[in-house]
Amino acid sequence: MTAENAENKPETRIQREKREIILEAALEIFSIHGFRGATIDQIAEAASMSKPNLLYYYRSKEDIYAALLHRLLDTWLAPLAEMDAAGDPVQELRRYIRRKIEMARDFPRESRLFANEILRGAPHIANILTKELKPLVDEKADVLRQWMRQGKIASVDPYHLIFALWATTQHYADFDAQIQAVLGPGRSGEGRFEDAARFIEQLFWNGLRPK
Amino acid sequence: MTAENAENKPETRIQREKREIILEAALEIFSIHGFRGATIDQIAEAASMSKPNLLYYYRSKEDIYAALLHRLLDTWLAPLAEMDAAGDPVQELRRYIRRKIEMARDFPRESRLFANEILRGAPHIANILTKELKPLVDEKADVLRQWMRQGKIASVDPYHLIFALWATTQHYADFDAQIQAVLGPGRSGEGRFEDAARFIEQLFWNGLRPK
DNA sequence: TGAATTTTTGACCGATTGGACAAATCCTAA
DNA sequence: TTAGGATTTGTCCAATCGGTCAAAAATTCA
């Protein structure tokens, strides 16, 4: 019988382990080649199993990809979700920038996976974007507006502020090839993430200082 | 005989016209599907010609892609190249931001084409990045440093400043699907580019105001 | 232990894709 | 007008890819 749980029988130990291995391999391959560019053979190879064996755990390439995106989503949105209305705005924004830069440094594959998906028009996660991301961003935009009303940060469009935070931080994962080419061999070490964090903090700290 | 000019015979009128049509079609298809996801048949269809006919003008899919990237590069780098050391820093940066946002609005296909290429590790333009882009950025980083020494803008890392300008502006083309999902139907009209330009100008204007 | 169930695999298939080729048609310049 | 080169197309091919299937091997549990 196939391992796919259309009806919810309990997952066996082997199923849990193998699905884990497959998703890790899929992240590696999909983040490099994109959905279309990746092949099931490559993923199977990276997961050290035969193609039919892999297809025993996930019925199709689409299934693997969808499972991977769903699994990573919460992790991906965690930094924004943790932004706390009750905290100090400067501290909260600083912390958010730090976490996003750390993710660009430590989880570039995840960043590129999502970047590629959005670049293609988000065909697999369109409803996630409107059903989960939008409400979260709406909520945090309210938090930002609250801080603005309290005079703690400058009054700007909160949505574009969030976009700018995303753009500046994720840039270091998604466009790494360009950044390394421009910075050259001298500055392309891991220190660039620290420099980036410092610059971005300074930019937003001065840029949002209340008048 | 093939139309490909290994040796430099003059290009005929038909060759000029057809190559133009092919590259326009290739931009459309490649920017949507990426290099791997696009097919020669799709490009031929979009260019209203048969596949063998298309392959008469460009020997291979790689050739079309390479020709397209090279053709668009100058246009793509023009805004940065035009940043003038002799001009007023605030005006120059403001103008740069405006031009980049206009390009995100008017040439999203070009932006996504390059974004996808960089995301994949820039396999086709690695040497362009180091031979053309890096020198240009080095030159403009010097201009920025000069402005900083003159006390006209705050002292920050000029490279990360350029990265942040790229990131915030190109974001509106490359991640358009996400932005439209988050802003929702009410705000996803063309006005978002104007809002974005205003926000980014304000962010950098305040963020770079000399102390 | 041994039967039932789960897991693994080799062989295979149809569709798609990048590209080759030769024949046919069209242009153009003398 | 016409010869020679430029352009166009129908046909075909080999490789790749997503996925199937039946049978073998391994595991689980009564």
Topology:
The structure is a homodimer of 211-residue chains.
Chain A: H1 13-37, H2 40-46, H3 51-57, H4 61-81, H5 89-106, H6 108-119, H7 126-149, H8 158-174, H9 176-187, H10 191-207
Helix pairs in contact in A: 1-2, 1-4, 1-6, 5-8, 5-10, 6-8
Chain B binds a DNA duplex (30 and 30 nucleotides) through residues 1-3, 12, 14-15, 18, 39-41, 49-53, 55-57, 59-61.
Describe this structure in words.
2 copies of one chain form a homodimer. With 211 residues, the first copy, chain A, is mainly α. Chain A folds into 2 domains: 13-59, Homeodomain-like (Arc Repressor Mutant, subunit A); 71-207, Tetracycline Repressor, domain 2 (Orthogonal Bundle). Chain A is built from 10 helices and no strands. Chain A has helices at residues 13-37, 40-46, 51-57, 61-81, 89-106, 108-119, 126-149, 158-174, 176-187, 191-207. In chain A, helix 1 (13-37) crosses helix 4. In chain A, 36% of the residues are buried. At the A-B interface, helix 1, helix 6, helix 7, helix 8 and helix 9 of A face helix 1, helix 6, helix 7, helix 8 and helix 9 of B. Chain B binds a DNA duplex (30 and 30 nucleotides) through residues 1-3, 12, 14-15, 18, 39-41, 49-53, 55-57, 59-61.
Largest interface, with counts of residues having CB < 8 Å to the other chain, equals: A-B, 56 and 57 residues
Q: Give the SSE string of chain A.
A: HHHHHHHHHH
The CATH architecture of the largest domain in chain A is Orthogonal Bundle
CATH T-level fold name of the largest domain in chain A:
Tetracycline Repressor, domain 2
Rounded Rg of chain A: 20 Å
CATH superfamily of the largest domain in chain A: Tetracycline Repressor, domain 2
* Spatial gap, N to C terminus of chain A: 67 Å
- Please state the structural category of chain A: mainly alpha
User: What is the overall number of helices of chain A?
Assistant: 10
